[in-house]
Every structure is written in structure tokens, then in C-alpha cells.
Amino acid sequence: MPEGDTIHRAAATLQRAIGGQIVTRFESVLPKLTRVDADAPLRGRTVDRVDARGKHLLIWFSGDLVLRTHMRMNGSWHIYRPGERWQRPHRDMRIVIETAAMHAVAFTVPVAEFVTSHELANHDVVAELGPDPLSDHFNAEEAIERMQAHGDVEIGDVLLDQTVIAGIGNVYKSEVLFGARVNPFLKVSQLTRDQLGTIVDIATRFMRANVVDSTQAGIVTYSGMRRTTGRANPSEGLWVYGRAGRPCRRCGTLISRRKQGPFVRSTYWCPRCQ
Ligand SMILES: [Zn+2]
């Protein structure tokens, strides 16, 4: 599943591709969207900006209309020059936003809706998002306080709770806790405020390091390489995630994996370092 860094990276790329441009054509196979387009056409509106909140990608059009998409497991936004061949089959297309210079195409996005800015501010999912480490207004103290409000919950689960801190997914959960040397199965109430602060700092550092501001036009990929170790070799990019049974990069102990939480997500950790 794409995590916050990927969505922010996609938003930056889309902003460069279609931000400030006038929509010349809009197409969708989603009735919820085409209904709005029929009433209040997208064609002729300006793409005011593209940004992200947590894992939600927001495209703001002139005339107070916002397209919210959420990628879940398989969705992605691509950008193409007019006439360029799509990298995914046409049957996967859900939304096309064309400007004179660039076409933005959403494939298999499971969540897409038009909202006004007022509706967005009151949106049950978006409005309840916790502080987003990738936002310019990120408030680390607030993230720590929100964690502390869930004292009985294991830290590995709390990090996935988007109302506590936005944008962290299953990969970062394991990587951040390794970086902070915290066992994922400890409850928040068992951790000191300093430890929580370290977790938030490392989450911010890891996620920001992966928002690459690539200037090249082309495909926006959601499976882009994610690195936390700072090593260039892709096979050495992560500390623990996906490495069960292999030696810890720090101490050599074999990495463990266990399902955790109500959604039984895999958690990876080093039993010695953490
Ligand atoms: Zn270790």
C-alpha cells in the first residue's frame, strides 16, 4: 500500500504537470464523478493546486471543487504527454484530466470523489487525520499527545492509526520502530515521552527522505523505491521490513516477523536491537 511519502511525491509531480493549467478535457468511468462533471463541468476550470494530506491526494480546481482520491492497494496516478502510450491497460482507467501540455490518468483508484473545500474540512476521514510529518505545518508535539491518548495500544498499531499520525503505512511502521530501537509490541504507556519523541523524529526523517522532488516528467509510480538505511543498493534499502529470518544489519540477530493488531498486519523487528 502506498504510504504518505509516495502520495506527497505523486502530488508534487502532478502539481508540476498540471498545476496552474486549464482543464481541456475530463473523463471518468465513475458515475459519482461524471454526475458532478455533467452538472458543473471540469473543462475550463484551472487546476489551482495538487497536494496531499496523509494518504489522500487532493486536486483543487477553480470554482471550489476538490477531487479527493485514495490509492489503497493498487491505485496510481500517471502523467503522460498528449499522444504518449499509457503504461497500463485502458480498462484500468478511472479518471483522465487533460490539459494542453499534460494528461493525468488515474488507474484503479478505489476511492474518488468531488467535494467542496467546506465539505473537505468537515470530511469524516480527512478532517480527522492526525498531524502529517510531510506537511509544512507538522506539529510533532500534537502527534506525541495523540499517541499518549492511546496508552493501552501497542506502538506498532498506533503508528498505523491515521488519526494519530498521518501517512505511515506498514513499511514505515517497522522501519521507524527499528530506527528508534523500540519493540513494536510495547504499549504506548510503557514508553517514555522521549522515546515517543524519537519515534516521531525518525518517522519524519525517513518519510521526508523519500519525497524525492524529481523534475522529470513521466510516470508517477506508487511502488517507487523506498529507502530508510540511506544505502544506495536497492537490496539494502530497508532495515527490517520484508527481512524475516535474515540477519539484522546492525547486530546480526535474525529478524522476526509476527502478525499484529486488529488488521493482522506483518510487523518486522530485531529481537535484540529492539
Ligand atoms: Zn539487531
Structural notes for this entry:
The protein has 274 residues and is α+β, with helices and mostly antiparallel strands. The protein has helices at residues 4-18, 31-39, 117-121, 124-127, 140-148, 155-158, 170-179, 193-209; strands at residues 25-28, 47-53, 56-61, 65-70, 76-80, 93-98, 103-107, 111-115, 256-260, 265-269. α5 (140-148) crosses α8 (193-209) and α7 (170-179) crosses α8 (193-209). It is elongated and about 60 Å long. The two termini are 25 Å apart. Mean pLDDT is 89; it is low at 213-224. The structure holds zinc ion. Zinc ion (ZN) is lined by residues 248, 250-251, 253, 270, 272-273.
Shape: elongated
* Cα-based radius of gyration, to the nearest Å: 20 Å
Q: Which class of secondary structure composition applies to the elements?
A: alpha+beta
Mean pLDDT: 89
Bound small molecules, which ones? Answer: zinc ion
Q: Strand count, sense and closure of the main sheet? A: 4 strands, antiparallel
List the helices and strands in order.
HEHEEEEEEEHHHHHHEE
- Strands of the widest sheet, in order across it, are 1-6-7-5
| Percentage of β-strand residues | 15-25%
Number of helices: 8
End-to-end Cα distance: 25 Å
Give the topology, please.
Blueprint: H1 4-18, E1 25-28, H2 31-39, E2 47-53, E3 56-61, E4 65-70, E5 76-80, E6 93-98, E7 103-107, E8 111-115, H3 117-121, H4 124-127, H5 140-148, H6 155-158, H7 170-179, H8 193-209, E9 256-260, E10 265-269
Antiparallel strand pairs: 1-6, 2-3, 3-4, 4-8, 5-7, 6-7, 9-10
The structure holds zinc ion.
Zinc ion binds next to loops.
